[in-house]
Amino acid sequence: MEEHRRDQEVEAGFALLITSDVRTPKTDETGKTARSLLEGAGHRVVAYGIVPNDPEEIGESVRAYLEDEGVDAILISGGTGVSSRDKTIEAVNPLLERELPGFGELFRALSYREIGAAALLSRAKAGVAGGKPIFCLPGSVGAVRLALERLILPLIGHLLWEVRR
Fold first, then answer.
1. CB–CB of 14/44 below 8 Å?
2. pLDDT by residue (tens digit) across 127-140?
3. What is the DSSP string of 77-99?
4. pTM exceeding the 0.85 threshold for the entire prediction
5. How crowded is the C-beta side of 72, counted as CA atoms within 13 Å?
């Protein structure tokens, strides 16, 4: 366990992508929460965008972040449910070189403790592409807070060390 904690002093540059048909930078409470938690933990938000729930636009944004040398990790919020408008997973899956199935499993287990059976409706997932972790999260403030505080922030330094070696 100590080995996993040794890399926590890493300052990561995050790209934050919100998928929504209705949010704007002014009304995006999820993005504000994510930025606050990331910066509060000593990381930087180096890119931020809001795109519609359109797989082509989501994929285009993620590909641009993968090419950006200042981006170490990508956090996507929204579009991970089961409605016909939820397209984040379909847009990101073809880009992933490696999946981290435990992320989605553990996120749903932790989420179940907070919201009950509705946690099963989340398709949250994580993986790696181009040496960068990508996290696909539900669009709610609570989901983003849970994922960052309990899963992403405690491990991001070690995860980055692993994918870069």
1. yes
2. 999 999 999 999 99
3. ES--SSSTT--HHHHHGGG-SEE
4. yes
5. 19
